[in-house]
Amino acid sequence: MKMLPHALRATLLVTFTVLATAFTSACKSYQLGNPTELPFKTIYIKPVSNDSFAPQAQALLSTQIRSTFIRDGRTQLVTSAETADAVLLVNLTEYQRAAAATRSDDTATAADFDLTLSAEVSLFNQNKGDYFFQERIIEETSHAYVSNPYQSATSPETQDFLQSEYQAMSLLTRDLARKITDEVLSPWEAK
């Protein structure tokens, strides 16, 4: 085995040292998790109210908001507003169905729908008696597939739409719960 010349070894050693220093110093300020300190430690999530026509959405959304907070783990959920540092208030304000696609044999009949659910969200500061933020509108859209491409060419039944809407509601409220949780736990300022 032939040894490398001294100048080449020195150059390789210097290059390796520079690269190692660059890689380690580039990551020195990196830290896992969310660096933002929340202004509250405990939160009470009031059951969702529903002023929209979204079927069964308030129970699903209440459960899913709680689940996303539990999974996140930065705050502790409490069972009463009196023991909480913050209270989350969510009211479903609007539910819309819009035709996303029509049937090829009947363009007046919708085959698939876009479902949009809007919520008004407020976060109350129990310790100071004012709001961290108030009446922010958060919305989410999901798709309800009514037509089944593997089904015969008969027209979709009302039951097909109701079942499709029921299945889509779970996804719609799950994604809305994530957006609400992000709004509460992300760095924010008064808007």
Automatic annotation (TrEMBL):
Which InterPro entries does the protein's record reference? LPS_assembly_LptE
**Pfam families noted in UniProt:** LptE (PF04390)
Work out whether the entry's keyword set contains Signal.
yes
- Tell me which UniProt keywords the record has, alphabetically: Lipoprotein, Signal
Q: Give the signal peptide as a residue range, or say none if absent.
A: 1-22
UniProt keyword tRNA processing, yes or no = no
State what protein this is by name: LPS assembly lipoprotein LptE
Q: Which organism is it from?
A: Thalassobacterium sedimentorum
This protein's encoding gene: lptE
